[in-house]
Write a structure and sequence with these properties.
three-stranded antiparallel sheet, elongated, mainly alpha
Length: 351
């Protein structure tokens, strides 16, 4: 398929800024997106009914009435064509080429039409997300033969569904993209942050902190979902850092928290060193790490309810917390903060 990520001329010439990703459903995208919904839902009209049940949508009576009128009109037209075909068959000789009986197509399914053209604009992304989940399959494994894949009806159908949708999402600069497993939508994550998150998850797992990786994955899913949960993501980000920091710095504490870890590193700064050196070339102190821990811990603005300082966590704040937590998990998993070796111990080691 032709590449569609090309910016407009004014952007390429530097006379206009790079446009931001579009939230919601822009008016320029809506007709094409509704047409995609109709074409996709029509592949399996029975599933369109299930989409409506899950999204709590009710088919208006007007759609049923119009469908029944179209069915009656189709029956009349089919009967007329059948009579004409039968009359032609009566006059057909053996040397005349046989003609198949004409079939009038069924009218569009009312559930499909309503999903595509009757739903509110705010519901469209939920419809798209559900159709992907119902009708698409995960990409075939790399080791699977391309010849076998080509004959897979589900693979071909998924490609038919996903490729035109991807083009619409890119061309409209939508904030959404198809998930890697092709079975839903997610918010786009900036490439650099996505790579940093992958590094953090890998560092946590390789160091034995599997819970930290799981919490990071949960936070990613909550932040990148069609309906985001920034508050829930923030909780998981704190837990991800705690899963590494608490056993590392507070192994005997029965109720360790990120706040306690922060206080411990701040108060026992002389006992620890940071891999980044100071101006003299000696291992640095933990001040920078303590600052990041403080930002993450105190930035959880809705941790306690009922007080004057309870402020809902915004998407922007949660994404900033993701950046901070990602860095902390990576640094701590790789032992960037470690017990400081005093001069006497160093001399003993060199003997």
């Amino acid at each position: 398929m032709r590449s569609t990520s090309r910016h407009r001329l004014s952007v390429r010439m530097g006379t206009a800024p790079v446009p931001a990703l579009m939230e919601g459903t822009p008016a320029s995208l809506e007709p094409a997106l509704r047409a995609w919904i109709q074409e996709t839902a029509a592949l399996d009209p029975d599933e369109a009914q299930h989409v409506m049940v899950r999204l709590d949508l009710v088919l208006p009576q007007a759609y049923w009435d119009r469908y029944e009128r179209q069915l009656r009109k189709r029956e009349m037209e089919q009967a007329r064509l059948d009579r004409r075909w039968e009359a032609e068959q009566a006059t057909r000789t053996e040397s005349t080429r046989a003609v198949l009986a004409p079939v009038v197509p069924l009218p569009p399914d009312p559930y499909v039409l309503f999903l595509a053209w009757g739903t509110e604009r705010e519901v469209l992304w939920d419809v798209v997300d559900d159709l992907l989940f119902l009708l698409c399959t995960e990409p075939p494994a790399p080791e699977k033969s391309p010849f076998v894949t080509w004959f897979s009806g589900s693979v071909r159908r998924t490609k038919r569904i996903v490729e035109p949708l991807n083009r619409l999402l890119v061309e409209s600069r939508s904030v959404y993209e198809v998930t890697p497993d092709q079975r839903g939508l997610q918010r786009r994550m900036e490439a650099g942050l996505s790579e940093a998150l992958d590094v953090a998850e890998s560092a946590a797992e390789s160091s034995g902190y599997l819970a930290a990786r799981q919490y990071l994955e949960r936070a990613r899913n909550k932040l990148m979902a069609v309906h985001t949960d920034p508050s829930g993501a923030y909780v998981d980000l704190i837990r991800a850092v705690e899963a590494v920091a608490c056993p590392m710095f507070l192994p005997r504490d029965q109720l360790p928290t990120l706040g306690k870890v922060r206080d411990h590193l701040r108060d026992a700064d002389a006992k620890y060193e940071y891999v980044l050196t100071d101006k003299s070339g000696k291992p640095g102190n933990t001040g920078g790490v303590v600052t990041m821990l403080t930002d993450l811990w105190e930035g959880h603005s809705d941790r306690h309810a009922g007080g004057p300082r309870e402020v809902p966590v915004s998407q922007e704040a949660a994404e900033a917390a993701l950046t901070t937590a990602t860095a902390l998990v990576t640094l701590l998993s790789r032992r960037a903060v470690r017990p400081r070796i005093n001069a006497a111990a160093q001399r003993q080691e060199t003997r």
